[in-house]
Amino acid sequence: MRLNLIPGTLAVTFLLLLAPAGLLHAQIPDGYCVSQEEYSLYRKINDYRTSKGLQVIPISRSLCYVAKLHVIDLYENHPDTSYCNLNSWSDKGPWKACCHSKFQPMPDCILNKPKELTSYKGQAHELCYFDSQEIVADTVFNFWMRVEQAKDILVNNRKWSLFTWQAMGVAIYKQYACVWVGEDMDTEKEPGICPGELDLKEMNITGKPAVANVVTQPTGRFYLIFGSFTTEAEAMKALDEFRQEGFYQSKVVVKDDTWRVSLSDHVTMQEARDAKSRLGDDYKEAWIIKF
């Protein structure tokens, strides 16, 4: 199990949310509800708070929705790979992508998510969890209670004593769990509890955009290449190996009758250079092409 891909750090973000101008909020599906397991996690956190004389945090429809989008993105698209931690978001959805790490933090991208995706207007802070197998509420809650930094957020201890949580969102999906806490009340109605398994397709909050395996037409993006082959079979084999190593956004780039395998691709040359520098000596032979 882990909280982050970076040893010794906790996947927690906190800062004032600044709403990006002109950004449209998503419409939360009318039938949106939380699963029995998600509500159990929400109750466990509040039961522990009340045992310590703290107030119950109301469940937030907006923050639950953002949490659900994030756990699905983490599971389907794996932005939490290599140097990116669990607070990262992929470029596979209607949100601003970001690779967040202690080496190159991007707090604004992360902390703007509730305002970016919903009508929630207050400050919000995120705590995430990953395990190697499907998880349940007990697993997540018990682990967070053993981790001082996580526990402090949930019970407003130490520096978090300056905050008063007025909203909480929870989500669990496969091997991931996220909880958001906010200082403002949510104006949306509280979500109901799903009578059975959460039907993500029906709620229109799932659907993994296909990550193309092969790029044959120019995209204008900058690809970080780590392998060049003369046959498709060799390139596809290398692609599978890289994805097994955690490079989930790897692609095969076909250009000038050559099959090249990219570790990642980026909007600008500088982003590609920065990505290469963070990979270290093991990938010092990687090179960048624009296609």
What structural keywords apply?
2 domains, 5-stranded mixed β-sheet, Pathogenesis-related Protein p14a, 4-stranded antiparallel β-sheet, 30% helix, disordered N terminus, 9 helices, alpha+beta, Alpha-Beta Plaits, 291 residues
Residue ranges: pLDDT <50 for 5 or more in a row?
1-25, 206-211
Our Rg estimate from Cα atoms comes to 20 Å
Count of the separate structural domains: 2
Number of strands: 11
- Categorize the overall geometry: elongated
> Sheet with the most strands?
5 strands, mixed
Q: Report the CATH topology name of the largest domain.
A: Pathogenesis-related Protein p14a
Look at the structure and name the CATH superfamily of the largest domain.
CAP
Structural notes for this entry:
This protein has helices spanning 36-51, 61-77, 107-111, 113-117, 137-146, 148-154, 200-203, 232-244, 269-279; strands at 12-13, 33-34, 124-130, 167-173, 176-182, 192-193, 214-215, 222-229, 251-255, 258-266, 287-290. The chain is α+β, with helices and mostly antiparallel strands. It is elongated and about 65 Å long. Mean pLDDT is 83; it is low at 1-25 and 206-211.
